[in-house]
Here is the input.
Amino acid sequence: MRIKSDFKDYYDCMARYDDDHKTLFLRKRGKPEKAKDYFLLPYEVSYRSTNRDITNIGFESHLIGFCGKFYPLIEVNHGGRKLIYDVEIAADVSKSRYNAESIRRFMQSQNQERHELFLEYGPIFIVSSMEPGEYRSYYNSQQWVTRNPRLSDWGFAKILPPNIAYNELWKFVCNMRQPAMPIPEMSNDIKIHQAGFDLKTSFRRHKSKK
Here is the structure.
């Protein structure tokens, strides 16, 4: 699969192992746009503290949409930016029983597939509870979608390694291009790399000693 993009992401390196040169993924980073109300990100974790507010911990909820599935995370802004995908770690950081339960409900209820949203926004997007760059401490029901974010900026490699992310994206793009056609077989090079082998050294014959 060829990836034509205005930026690099962590899974792009896997394209070198793919011999499918017909499939093309056009990836252009979009600007935040207003989302529809069916995302329902929780307001309990939608407080962003200002630079002068050092007593409160800022929380933001996000949903990363990737190839048919959602991956919820909590962004914590207090003494640096932290991205948390683990539900118990996120709940523990909140320091509030009320927020902790809200975080658990949010992160445990977003594992269902919602294919209609991917038809609208594409294979990769992120939903945010606040508009990027906006500072406020009150709840606003408006949420924001950014198409094709750089997933390396969101620590997504911890969730899906490069080979798995690339394979999922390739299958999704192939299915969108030819929905009535069966998805083609993955190339041998990608299968070998997924198995943990190195194409340059793993299958090289060693010279036998005489």
The first helix runs from residue 87 to 93.
